[in-house]
Amino acid sequence: MIEQPLEKELWQTYDSIVGIDEAGRGPIAGPLVVAGCAFEKGYWHPDIDDSKKLTEKKREQLFQVIQEDALWFSIVVVSEKEIDQKNIYKATQDAMLMIVQSTDCAYCLTDAMKLPGYLKPYEAIIKGDSKSVSIAAASILAKVTRDHIMMELDQKYPEYGFKKHKGYPTKAHLEALEKYGVLPCHRKSYGPVKEKLEIKLF
């Protein structure tokens, strides 16, 4: 629970605040998902917190609540191809900039990501998803959206177990990668996948 969100003080100066977060920087398969969320001044919800602290059931419930309560939200899905072309840091940064530039909010909070070239007031907060209700809500929107995508990929490629590990390089996922090979949804620039492709070339 975020009892005293960062926004409480900021709302005294800024009428509108957007929080931005991502899900899926670490996995070797599946897209990156970045989300932004803004609430009315003074908004608070006892259950909205860092998505990693919540159960899957609670995240699913809050996914609906946030979309209903938000003044504005945006969800951007970044493909594996774009991640490979740009690198994960730049792909995340670009998606966050795309989101914040599409809103007229007066202030922006990101979860530790700096936004070079962005001219409006903003702050990159370390562990922002446990301090800001807007960033926490964005983290839930991003996480649930990405989980849904990975569950769809699990139906398409059941032998890889995406429903369980969500594309992270777990032992089971790496064993499946070794046994069945690289899929279109794998990130080709990531170590284990890149290594597998290089072995195949020789």
Shape: globular
Q: What is the rounded Rg?
A: 18 Å
Beta-strand residue fraction: 5-15%
Main sheet record: 5 strands, mixed
Number of strands: 5
Roughly what is the average pLDDT, rounded to an integer?
96
List the helices and strands in order.
HEEHEHHEEHHHH
- Helix/strand/pairing category: alpha/beta
Estimate percent helicity: 40-55%
Runs in which pLDDT lies below 50 for 5 or more consecutive residues are none
* First-residue to last-residue Cα separation: 52 Å
- Kindly report the spatial arrangement of strands forming the biggest sheet: 3-2-1-4-5
- Specify the number of helices: 8
Q: How would you describe this protein?
A:
The chain is of the alpha/beta class. Helix content is 44%, strand content 15%. It has a five-stranded mixed β-sheet, with helices on both faces. A hairpin with an 8-residue loop joins strand 1 and strand 2 (32-38). The longest helix is centred in the last third of the chain and has 24 residues, at 133-156. It is globular and about 55 Å long. The termini are far apart. The model has no long low-confidence stretch (mean pLDDT 96).
What structural keywords apply?
5-stranded mixed beta sheet; 8 helices; 15% strand
Question: How does the SSE layout of this entry go?
Answer:
Blueprint: H1 7-10, E1 17-23, E2 32-38, H2 56-69, E3 72-78, H3 80-86, H4 88-101, E4 107-111, E5 122-125, H5 133-156, H6 162-165, H7 171-180, H8 191-201
Parallel strand pairs: 1-4, 4-5
Antiparallel strand pairs: 1-2, 2-3
